[in-house]
Each structure stands twice: as C-alpha cells, then as structure tokens.
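Give me the fold.
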Amino acid sequence: MRYNKRARASNARNKFPVPAETTLRELIYLRMPIAVRPKERIGPNIPPIVYQELFRMRKSLFLLIKKLYMKKYFIILGSLQAITAIGAIPAGIGYLIDISGERMGVSPEMLANSPLNSFLLPGLFLLLVNGVANGAGAFLSFTRNRYAGHAGLILGIILTLWIIIQVAWITLSSFMQPLFLAIGLINIFLSWRILKSAVK
C-alpha cells in the first residue's frame, strides 16, 4: 500500500522532498533524526508500529544518557564547591580570631602592597563568601536545584577573581593559589554547561 498523501504532507514540512511513491515504513524512517536512525532499514515483514516503538525507545535512551551525563556535572560542581567551603571556613575563622595573621603563620607585612592593614576583611571574605556561600552552592548542586548553575557561575567567577587579586597583592606564595584558581575556572565551565543544557 502506498501513502502519497503522507508523502506530500511530509514534503511540505521538510526541506528535503520525499518521493511520492513512499511507503509508511519508509516515511517513518525518513522522518527520524539522522542520529537515531538504524544503520539498516527494517525489513518489510516488520509492522510500522514496531518501527515507531523502536524510534521512541532510542529517543528515550538518548534522553537518559543525557540526563546521566548532566548529573555528573552537578556532582563534580558540588564536590568542588564543598572542598572550597571546607578549606575556607576554618581559614576565615582563624583570621578573624587573630586579624594580624600570626596565628595562621603569616604576618601583616604580606599586605604591604594592598590597601589593607589587617586580615579582618580577608577573613570575613573567606568565611562568608568562599566558605558559607560555597557550602550553600554545593547543596544546590547536589540537589540539582534550578539555580545551581547560576550560583556556581557567580561563585566560580568570584573565586577566580579572589585568587588573581590575592596574587597581585601578596604575590604567588602557595601552591593553594593555582589550585583554587583551577577550581574556580572548572566551576565556571561546569556551571556554563549546566546553564546551556537548561536552555535547551
């Protein structure tokens, strides 16, 4: 049996014309996205409904793979944010307890090239922004909240700028600086991918 009306309707919807003498089975094949088409067309003995079901199953499989792939982004982003928070909160508390920094193994002379004369503001920043805020960001990421991408992007940019400014003021003094710079850049990338996927 031929389906000339279906072929003509398909021609009106598609860039590429479908031959007038096209069976329903062939028409379904041509309407499938190239990425999910089987390498060989199903034989003539298989009903079109089976063809449609296979197409639906393949589409569901691709959606599942994409979902699992995005879940990995959330887990990695949340883990990096948790690591940042775990490292920043004790450091921030330490600088607030002793704003001279001597208790943390540093001295006020390190701030000679900066507009600061104590570690009070750096301590507050470490505790509230790099610490508490990243802890909240980790929670959003692990729960796959819709705002996780936005929070991760903002916190990643802040962490990156924090390290750049820190190096500019007190020079490169620890391996932790390039480490957290890399973490900030990775956070930005992961958050961008999460946001890009949400737009789709």
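Residues 69-199 form one domain.
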